[in-house]
Amino acid sequence: MSAEHLLSWWRMLLLLAAAALLPSGCSDSRGDPTVYRKHCTSCHGSQGQGLRALYPPLQGSAYLGERLAELPCLVSTGVRGTIVTGKKTKNIRMPAFSQLSLEEMSSLVNYLQLNWGTGGETVAERTVAQWLRSCP
Questions:
Q1: Per-residue buried b or exposed e for 111-122, using 16+ beta carbons within 10 Å of the residue's own CB
Q2: Residues 49, 133: contact at Cβ < 8 Å?
Q3: What are the beta bridge partners of residue 20?
Q4: Strand, helix or coil for residue 90
Q5: Helices (H), the chain
């Protein structure tokens, strides 16, 4: 085996070792709570339980299930008016969090989905960016 061929094998081995050290995306991580704690906990609670009739609970929210693609728009534009959560109708005022960066918004969506939504795979920043571009 030539020295050049041996060097190529070593490079390939190093690349494979480096790839093995990267996060696989299959971890049991519950997401990063930083953005949630900073912007959402005061209304939705530390466990996503909501606050009586004022703020809806996050567990079982349609926005964390079949309406996940609408969640970034809801967070960035806020909500004023009537919403239906489960079997209850609530009149709420949620402020807009339009100052969140794409990274923060992606982190928040993934944290909410992994903790109180369907779980499943995390959503990439590019997907969240696409959803934000389609906001009304």
A1: bbbbbbbeeeeb
A2: no
A3: none
A4: strand
A5: 3-21, 34-39, 41-44, 71-77, 102-116, 125-133
Q: How far apart are the C-alpha atoms of 13 and 116, rounded to whole Å? A: 40
What is the enclosing helix (H) or strand (E) of 81? Answer: strand 79-85
- pLDDT per residue as tens digits for the range 15-67: 444 444 444 333 344 578 999 999 999 999 999 998 877 788 888 888 888 88
CB 65 within 8 A of CB 118: yes
Q: What contacts 113, CB < 8 A, 6 or more positions away?
A: 31, 64, 68, 119, 120, 122, 123
> Binning pLDDT at 50, 70 and 90, where does residue 14 land?
very low
Pick the closest to residue 102 from 121, 78, 75, 79 (CA basis): 75
Determine how many CB atoms are found less than 10 A away from the CB of residue 3: 7
CATH number corresponding to 30-133: 1.10.760.10
Q: How many residues does the chain have?
A: 136
0.90 exceeded by pTM: no
